[in-house]
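Progress note, sequence design subtask.
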């Protein structure tokens, strides 16, 4: 009977298996390190790219901030100019308003049939006094006044016959109360605070 010693074969096979496992382990570690280094390089490149974009965006934001400040300055200057323009327009209106006002009254007067003796205005309330050839002329004058842009209403307060013996002339003396566009409503009186005392 022939006997074969298999111990050396088994030991060699065992060593081969161990070497193979060690090789697979180191190969796996190498692949993992390679993958980690590749990922790290990609992430580093992406980070550098993002930092560059961030720097560019910050520069753009700085330029936009200058533009924003310039726009705000222009808006402020525009508002200032507009306020000055409004003041000038109000002053021009106040300056030219009375001139146009008197011009419209003068145009409304029937020529050679009515004469004004007094004109007074306070807080938009206009009072006209004068003489006319007759009552119809006074009515015509009132109609003309109501057609003007500056006067909103015309009321006849008094009218009476006036005689001028020197000229042998009878006229209708009148007083007109008019309201103008410049009329300002008076503020309502506020009730005084405090307890009211009852009379005993």
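Output:
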């Amino acid at each position: 009977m022939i006997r074969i010693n298999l111990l050396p074969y088994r030991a060699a096979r065992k060593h081969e298996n161990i070497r193979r496992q060690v090789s697979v382990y180191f190969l796996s570690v190498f692949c993992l390190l390679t993958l980690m280094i590749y990922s790290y390089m990609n992430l580093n490149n992406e980070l550098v790219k993002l930092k560059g974009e961030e720097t560019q965006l910050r520069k753009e934001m700085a330029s936009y901030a200058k533009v924003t400040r310039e726009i705000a300055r222009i808006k402020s200057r525009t508002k200032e100019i507009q306020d000055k323009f409004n003041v000038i327009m109000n002053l021009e209106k106040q300056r030219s308003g009375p001139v146009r006002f008197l011009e419209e009254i003068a145009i409304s007067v029937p020529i050679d049939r009515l004469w004004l003796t007094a004109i007074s205005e306070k807080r938009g309330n206009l009072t006209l006094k004068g003489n006319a050839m007759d009552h119809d002329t006074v009515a015509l004058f009132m109609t003309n006044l109501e057609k003007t842009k500056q006067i909103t209403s015309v009321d006849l307060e008094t009218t009476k016959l006036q005689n001028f013996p020197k000229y042998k002339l009878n006229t209708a003396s009148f007083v007109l109360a008019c309201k103008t566009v410049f009329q300002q409503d008076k503020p309502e009186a506020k009730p005084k605070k405090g307890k009211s005392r009852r009379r005993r």
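DSSP finds two helices and four strands in the chain. Work on this subtask will continue into the next period as scheduled.
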